[in-house]
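Changelog entry: the Ribose transport system substrate-binding protein record was regenerated in this release. Current contents:
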Amino acid sequence: MRIPAIVMAGAALTLGLAACGSSGGGGSAGSSGGGDIKIGMSVSTLNNPYFVQLRDGAQAQAQKLGVSLTVTDAQNDASQQVNQVQNFTSQNMKAIIINPVDSDAAAPAVKAADRVKIPVIAADRGVNGADVAQTVASDNVAGGKLAAEQLAKDMGEKGSVVVLQGTPGTSASRDRGQGFEQGIAAFPGIKVVAKQPADFDRTKGLDVMTNLLQSHPDVTGVFAENDEMALGAIKALGAKAGQQVKVVGFDGTPDGLKAVQAGTLAASVAQQPKLLGQQAVDAAVKAAKGETVEKTVAVPVKVATKENVAEFE
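Regenerated structure tokens:
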């Protein structure tokens, strides 16, 4: 299984067939029976390699199916994302894909699309309080459990752990945290001494980990709910990373996998963002045609360690 790699910002771009090789924020294509189907896709942030891969997978599938895909970057701003989805609705898109900044805040815009019969696909993160045609996401609860089991193994099933949480209000953070909590409960020799949000951001991961080390200098394990925060934590730990302190991340990003190879990151629960983007477009096209789609699609995850990291590169 390959978990590959990686920018754009605010404004939406729709690429014509001649422009498909460029690096803009949207993609379209011209064959395979897509007809005049236009899909809008709002991504939470393109400042994170994981979501760049998700976008790339969506663009590739849109080209393959011959549909127009307009991609916008919400820049981790929930209100900006609401405006983007509202714009897609007013533009009469045939379907909308949303990768929510905030699973709760996305609901009103999703409801507005639903009222005018525009199907919405939630990608990577669910939408709370609104009906979507499909939610396609990694099995984050299972992934959280895998992270707990791997971290416990690397720690010798004893020691103290801090958790770097993702953006509050996101289903990904909630589910990964829930899975980790369930998984780590099987190891009574390990105590979780602190949990703190770092918003899935590398710089915030560095800052939060630096602060946590002041109050918990003897910590021996870190679970970061994504690789970006894990990489920030590794920087804060310095020479301790991979030695006295074991760090496990989540996503299997290119930088995360490099850290696994180097030994500073003990493991990463690897997702398949390109596949997730492809499946979101598949569902959007089917829903736009009035076809029935599964309510939930879970994309499998797998733990990447130094022993098997070559499988993911």
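The chain has two domains: 17-137+273-297, 140-271+306-312.
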